[in-house]
Amino acid sequence: MKRKKRRKKKTSGSRLLGLFAIFLLLPGASAEKRKQAEPFGLVAGTVFREPGFALGGAEVTLAADPESGAAPAGAKKQKATTGARGEFAFRVPVAAMRYALHAQARGYASQDKRASIEGEQRVEVTFLLAPESKQ
Fold it and tell me: Does residue 131 contact residue 109 with C-beta atoms inside 8 Å?
């Protein structure tokens, strides 16, 4: 019994070139048509619990600091829940602004912090929440 050898189909170069040309003609595929993302600042950080372990499931709130005056356009109150590694992040307008942050979690005392940002920068904020006293 003789076995027949299978031949691999070769894809012609012109076929690949045709598929590539179609991809380029699709709406939105052109680099010129892509919308420029608006610039933003980033207020990010981590919530820890004593004795220094990450605290997942904590709620962090970011709002314009009432002591800093009027908030710029696009600045609004935001909430985030930390992931398993205790991390959170907020996109904020690039205007110079001071923000108030509040972190809280069930069974822990809440904590407030302030953060100032100017332009397209990243500001790190770290919280260390202590267990609530059982009185």
Answer: yes
- Residues 6 or more apart whose CB falls under 8 angstroms from that of 112 comprise 100, 101, 102, 103
Is 0.70 surpassed by the pTM of this model? no
- Report helix, strand or coil for 16: helix
pLDDT in tens, 50-99: 888 999 999 999 999 877 666 655 568 999 999 999 999 999 988 889 99
Domain ranges within the chain, ordered by starting residue: 41-129
Question: Which strands make up the sheet holding 59-64, listed edge to edge?
Answer: 78-81, 59-64, 97-105, 108-117
Classify residue 93 by its DSSP letter: -
CATH superfamily for 41-129 is: Immunoglobulins (2.60.40.10)
SS3 content of the chain, % helix, strand, coil (to 5): 10, 40, 45
* 27-33 LR contacts (CB < 8 Å, sep 24+): none
